[in-house]
Design a protein that fits this description.
The structure is a single chain. This protein has helices spanning 4-17, 30-39, 45-58, 62-66, 70-76, 83-100, 109-113, 120-131, 140-149, 158-168, 174-187, 206-216. By secondary structure, the chain is mostly helical. α2 (30-39) runs antiparallel to α8 (120-131). It is elongated and about 60 Å long.
Length: 220
Amino acid sequence: MLNKKQIRYCLDVMAEMFPDAKAELIHDNSFELLIAVLLSAQATDQHVNKVTRELFKKYKRPEDYLAVPLEELQDDIKSIGLFRNKAKNIQKLSKTLVERFDGEVPQTREELESLAGVGRKTANVVLSVAFGVPALAVDTHVERVTKRLGICRWKDTPLEVEQTLMKKVPVEEWSVTHHRLIFFGRYHCKARTPNCEHCDLLELCREGKKIMKQRERGIK
């Protein structure tokens, strides 16, 4: 496991590599962000943005999603994985927003997680990006990078990864660290082909060292 000084170095390197890291889901307000994050489960941000380009022209408010048959909404997002279940959740959460929150996206984690299809990760993204609340959402990139580097343990659950990061990263850096970890994992420390050969963190990365040894031996 990396010590405090080593973790600080990792964060600083990522900051230099991705100084402008931010949410890549295109949205104009908290409601659009909520829908986009819900759609992004098991889908790339690029694909979601392609779908929401037209979706957000058609649906502006929670009431709009409730005004069409479920089958029509499913058809609007059918190119995205799990579209049937996601369409059901969109209509359910829209109904809750109208009935409980006057059509507005709530600004607490508890209330956000009361919405259909919204788990801790989605709630954290909305809190951080839409409302500026310090939060560390753990997606597949954040989990992979922190475990490869040894910031977290391989056996840690996403919640344990989040709790570890909250202890080791200053609270004022939670949100930006979330984005930088995602960019580092998405564009550099990729799942299948990490760029270990040109990584300034290789000397600290236990997994990177293993990968490099395998490559040197010709093992794919």
